[in-house]
Design brief:
The structure is a homodimer of 373-residue chains. The first copy, chain A, is of the alpha/beta class. Helices cover 39% and strands 18% of the residues of chain A. Chain A has 14 helices and 16 strands. In chain A, the strands form four sheets. An eight-stranded parallel beta barrel of chain A has the order 4-5-6-10-11-12-13-14, surrounded by five helices. In chain A, strand 10, helix 7 and strand 11 form a beta-alpha-beta unit. Chains A and B meet through helix 13 and helix 14 of A and helix 13 and helix 14 of B.
Chain lengths: 373, 373
């Protein structure tokens, strides 16, 4: 088994677990830092390791287009290419095809799209997505799904999830062909993605179909494309209970710190989100408001953090670190005033120092959560 | 004495020395990494320390305008503000007034200029420049000089250097007032700047006048404003011999690696230049072509390095580090192909990794030079 369920919370559906990958163990609940193009923006892989990031997420769409998965394969995979020897999850590329590509056309075969970089035409099929992810040497491979827009007609969502299921079958078949030939400790994991929007019956249908195919883990998809918290939790509420206890559950693209806690309380094990890094680059910084090592795991948690807009004038001469209880490199070495000055002067270092802090915050959040289950 | 002359080269005018500052000793010949706005672009002060950078250069013009010297003074100086406890040299602000400010007007009193940031009007007098640098807590303070454009009429250069001398006198007077009250180990050093373009008689006149005022060190100014190597060396050739042996000599704004070696052979001890960091950010990277720990110190050195344009297509699948003999963080951890990919993808990390390498190259160059005297 690639997943060990270690403990279940008494008061909520939260769980403690461990996922075994070919690049080591991941303690769950966990947060995956996003390394879009093979780097966590502004950070190097060595400092990421020092920060005890457990796993990073690489974007198949980006890496396929540049530098290409074929090139990365020649390097022995993304781990070696970016010098990161911990686990890597790769997405299917589907999300970026829907959100970033210039145009796209969905057929039974797959998604034809126009590159946002140079307008070249590409075809992403379920098989192609798996092939790319295998070339990247991914530890956790995601099936290709259609990311339905939000909001969308029920009929559209229904047809979309049926297509997603057929794609998932093709992914599984293609994935197994190569993966099952490998030694057990070299095998990747394949996750299915439950779709169905906010419709309980559709989520049930999707989950049922995917469970039949059988995957190493299950993701809940289609919740981050502009969906508000409430709708997102509706989708989680009607999906998580349908998923097997002995498989990890991944809520894609989520989310704000309180959303992460709320989803953990609903039984989610894995998260990824651009929030900590993207916000950092804009000077939006997270800070715990409690020193406690325990987070109250609840579907609707009390606020335990605040947001600091470090560019604000009021930090101009503030000698304190962002958070004097924080052990991150930034807080150990630099003041709010210095950080504010770097942002005001558009110094590159600003984005890195803020990113380090926000990633540390999310990793700490997950540690506190694991501590609290 | 703030300068110890340790050794003189037999074959050239090169010297080994040590400069004592209130933040520690600097081995010369040395290169000063530029921390324009209180950060070496894309690097943090801790990694700079680990790289064994001896001293950084802060820009008075920039820091005066933002975050202001008054603010930095409240933090106990630039050292504490940027968390760098090694020596800092600050320029006078003059060079940026001439090169960066929107408009400027030079009078006997000083230089009135319009900020490039918000168009506000400021007056930089010799006294003001010293006051700012003292507020910054600089270890090595530079006098305000007029940076004559290149090329310029001899008459203009002559009048300009006379003004520079009068400003130097006012700087010295203002500097001593505060500096002499301090304990000896808390005192800063004040450097004069010899002007006179490429005119031997004018350089002599400027040097003579400045020597009479007496400074802790002497800089050769006016050589980097668009001056070609040959002209620059002409200025050094006619100036360096006029300077006292027992004081450090600083060639401002220079230069390319071979220029640094050529100037060391002419008796220069200190350098600063944007080349390693600016070029790095554009993917232009330095690499020694010899593994030798010795540099042939000569006025016209044989080439000992080459330039790598890392964005070049030919590095696309190059698994080697930039330089397999290099011990810098970048070469120890990442391939040319990865670096090229980061530049192609406009990833922030590209600029940092390239800057680390180029700064390391310059620091290594100085170490090799010191090794060779």
């Amino acid at each position: 088994m690639s997943f060990n369920l270690i403990k279940e919370d008494k008061k909520s559906d939260a769980r403690l677990g461990k996922i075994k990958t070919k690049h080591g163990m991941i303690k769950t609940p966990c947060f995956m830092t996003i390394a879009t193009c093979g780097s966590v923006k502004s950070l190097d892989s060595i400092e990421l390791k020092k920060m005890k990031a457990q796993i990073v997420l690489g974007n198949t769409y980006h890496l396929y287009l540049r530098p290409t998965d074929k090139l990365i394969k020649k390097f022995g995979g993304l781990h070696k290419f970016m010098n990161w020897n911990g686990p890597i999850l790769t997405d299917s590329g589907g999300y970026q095809v829907f959100s970033l590509a210039k145009t796209r056309k969905i057929t039974e075969e797959g998604a034809e799209f126009k590159s946002h970089i140079n307008g070249s035409i590409h075809m992403l099929t379920p098989e192609k997505s798996i092939e790319i992810q295998q070339n990247l040497g991914s530890d956790i491979v995601m099936v290709l799904d259609e990311c339905a827009p939000y909001p969308a007609e029920k009929k559209y969502i229904d047809e979309s999830l049926e297509l997603t299921t057929r794609w998932a079958q093709r992914c599984k078949k293609y994935f197994d062909k190569k993966n099952l030939k490998l030694k057990k400790n070299e095998r990747a994991l394949l996750f299915g993605i439950v779709q169905g929007g906010t419709y309980k019956d559709l989520r049930e249908k999707s989950a049922k179909q995917l469970l039949e195919i059988d995957f190493d883990g299950f993701a809940i998809g289609g919740v981050s494309v502009g969906e508000p918290s409430k709708k997102m939790f509706q989708a989680v509420d009607c999906t998580a209970p349908l998923l097997p206890k002995d498989k990890p559950r991944y809520l894609m693209g989520v989310g704000k710190p309180e959303e992460v806690v709320g989803a953990v309380a609903r039984g989610i094990d894995m998260f990824d989100c651009v929030i900590p890094t993207r916000n950092a680059r804009h000077g939006t910084i997270y800070k715990f408001t409690t020193q406690s090592d325990i987070i109250n795991i609840s579907k609707n948690p009390k606020m335990f953090y605040k947001i600091v807009h470090i560019k604000n004038e009021k930090f101009k001469s503030d000698k304190k670190p962002i958070d004097h209880n924080c052990s991150c490199f930034t807080c150990q070495n630099y003041s709010r005033a210095y950080l504010r000055h770097l942002f005001a002067s558009k110094e590159l270092l600003a984005m890195r120092l803020a990113s380090i802090h926000n990633i540390h915050f999310y990793l700490e959040l997950m540690r506190k959560i694991r501590n609290s289950v």
